Amino acid sequence: MGYSLDFGWLAGAAGVIARGAAMTLLLIAVTTLAGTFLSILGAAGKRNGPKPLRLAIGCYVEVMRNTPFLVQLFFIFFGLPSLGVRLDPILAAMLAMTLNMAAYTIEIVGAGLDAVPRGQTEAALALGLRPRQVFIKIVLPQALKVIYPALTSQIVIMMLESAVVSQIAVRELTYEADMLQARTFRAFETYFVVTMVYLGLSMGLRRLLVSGGRQVLGAGVS
């Protein structure tokens, strides 16, 4: 029996797909801001903090990078309520995505910090700048410029991994796709359209990040 393609339902489902895409973008926007901030703190602490802090950050990175994201998500959403901590699905998704992304970007940012010549830090300190000023004004901007392409790729990867949070009923793009195909019985057409939407989001997000990076960090960002 042949299969007849039918995209006639798409006009009525455009709003649902758009809302799912908007939720996906909201998740990655919050994750990017929070995850990048945590990664900067983590990378600095891992290199300049006291030994207990360095060990704690190292353990966190290893645990998060060597366990499935789905398990981390379930631990936060289903496990923490056993300890009396109950989170809204969206908050749980944002927390899980932020913690997962930060574990990867700590190493990315750390590589950028290591790439800045030590002599620049020593020269800035000799000129009377405080260590915090040296880090914020001298080291960090150069480090971010070096690692920006890798950071951009990690953000896009995290956006794609956000599909996992549909498992805790966050109404992002994949969740809406699941509901659509359950109502229309048009799985091929539904997931084909959603695949194209994800492709468009990925390409658009990458271009936006590159453009923003050039404006903030200057020429040379790609």
Automatic annotation (TrEMBL):
UniProt keyword annotation of Disulfide bond present: no
Cellular component GO terms, alphabetical: ATP-binding cassette (ABC) transporter complex
InterPro entries (alphabetical): AA_ABC_transptr_permease_3TM, ArtM/GltK/GlnP/TcyL/YhdX-like, MetI-like, MetI-like_sf
Domain of life, source organism: Bacteria
Mode of membrane association: Multi-pass membrane protein
Entry's localization field: Cell inner membrane; Cell membrane
GO terms for biological process, alphabetical: amino acid transport
Key words of the record: Cell membrane, Membrane, Transmembrane, Transmembrane helix, Transport
Cited Pfam families: BPD_transp_1
One example GO MF annotation: transmembrane transporter activity
Transmembrane segments: 20-43, 55-78, 90-113, 190-209
Segments forming domain ABC transmembrane type-1: 21-209
Family note: Belongs to the binding-protein-dependent transport system permease family. HisMQ subfamily.
Name of the molecule in the record: Amino acid ABC transporter permease
